[in-house]
Structure formats: structure tokens, C-alpha cells
Design goal:
single chain; about 200 residues; mainly alpha; Serine Threonine Protein Phosphatase 5, Tetratricopeptide repeat; 2 domains; 11 helices; about 0% strand
Length: about 200
């Protein structure tokens, strides 16, 4: 009876078996979990404001949506800011087509003036703010808004006069004007510098 032939394949060494087991273990192992990159809290806040604006926009609450989108534009992320600008323009169009409510009080005309300023409708803004000033001649915020409007329309003398009155009525307006973008027009005017930085004169 012939003998059974032995396999010519050499027996696997212990080292080879160990490598094979290691490969099998690695194959069965779960891939490592990716740790999510931390999100900038400024972007998170901006995204939250954007979503809030879109919610108001879908509800056709365009004034509130506009406020949210303005804050988004001031934020850190350029992509969100660009999207907000598009929706902000649509809000302005929709607001301009809305029937205007009857304005009676100084605050009504003040808010009406600010709304027209945001739309770039300077004449209508001035009309509302002038009416507000007549109804509340000691309201500092009305004079401050008039000063900002004067800057936007290139009237330096009137802007300085209205801002001076606003500061006399409420000195804190001096500090607001220092960082207000609406007053860029006056940045090179020494009268403006003297008005908002009186401490420099006494130094």
C-alpha cells in the first residue's frame, strides 16, 4: 500500500503565525473615531443669528429679520455675512412696500426715521426726525440720530451742532460717537475730535 504523500509546503513558523494573527486582529478592529474639530464660538453665534433671521423672514417679520441679519453681517464668517446681505436687501424691499402705520408720538417718528435711514431714503428720514424733535425737544437720541443723518448726507456743520446737543443732553453719547461708523465722515475734522475727546484739549 503506497504511503500518503507529504505536502511539500513548508510548515509555517511561529513568527509567521504571529504576524497572521496580528493582521486578523487589525482587520477586526474598529477604525479610530475621528475627533470633530472645535467650532469657533463666534461662528456658532453668527449661525444662530442667521437661523433666527431666517425664521423671522419665513414668518414675514421683516423688521425683526433685518435686525438679526445686520448682526450676522457684523460677525466673523464671510460666507454667512454674504448670505445675510442678500436677505437683508430683500427685507428692505419688502419693508419699503409695506403700508406705513399712523405715526403720532416722538418715538413713532424716531423709529420711522431710523427705518428710512436704513433704506437710504434720506429726505423721508429727515422729515420723521424733524417731527420727532418738535415733539420731544430734549430727547438726546433724536439729536444723535439727526447728527448721524447729517453725516450720511455730507452736512458737517449741522452734524456737529446736533451731536453737540446730543452730548449736552446726555454725555454718554460722546463715547458712542467714537465708535459709530456713521460718523466716519467727520473723522478728519478737528472740531469732531475736540468734541468727542475733550480730555485731549486739557492735556
Amino acid at each position: 500500500m503506497p504511503k500518503a504523500k507529504r505536502s511539500k509546503r513548508p510548515a509555517r513558523s511561529a513568527r509567521s503565525r504571529a504576524k497572521s494573527k496580528k493582521k486578523q486582529a487589525l482587520a477586526k478592529a474598529k477604525p479610530p473615531r475621528r475627533v470633530p474639530e472645535p467650532v469657533d464660538p463666534r461662528i456658532q453665534q453668527q449661525l444662530k443669528l442667521y437661523e433666527e433671521g431666517m425664521r423671522y423672514f419665513s414668518q414675514q417679520k421683516f423688521h425683526k429679520a433685518r435686525q438679526s441679519f445686520e448682526k450676522v453681517i457684523e460677525g466673523y464668517g464671510k460666507e454667512l455675512a454674504d448670505r445675510a446681505r442678500v436677505h437683508l436687501a430683500v427685507c428692505d424691499q419688502r419693508i419699503s412696500r409695506m403700508p406705513q402705520p399712523s405715526l403720532r408720538s416722538a418715538d413713532d417718528h424716531y423709529h420711522g426715521g431710523i427705518a428710512m435711514m436704513n433704506l437710504g431714503r434720506w429726505d423721508e428720514a429727515r422729515e420723521h426726525l424733524d417731527k420727532a424733535k418738535k415733539l420731544a425737544s430734549k430727547a438726546d437720541y433724536i439729536f444723535y440720530a439727526l447728527a448721524a443723518l447729517d453725516c450720511l448726507t455730507g452736512e458737517a456743520d449741522s452734524a456737529l451742532q446736533n451731536l453737540r446737543t446730543a452730548i449736552e443732553l446726555k454725555p454718554e453719547n460722546r463715547y458712542h460717537a467714537r465708535n459709530d461708523e456713521d460718523f466716519k465722515f467727520l473723522n478728519e475734522d478737528p472740531r469732531f475730535t475736540d468734541l468727542i475727546y475733550p480730555e485731549r484739549e486739557s492735556a
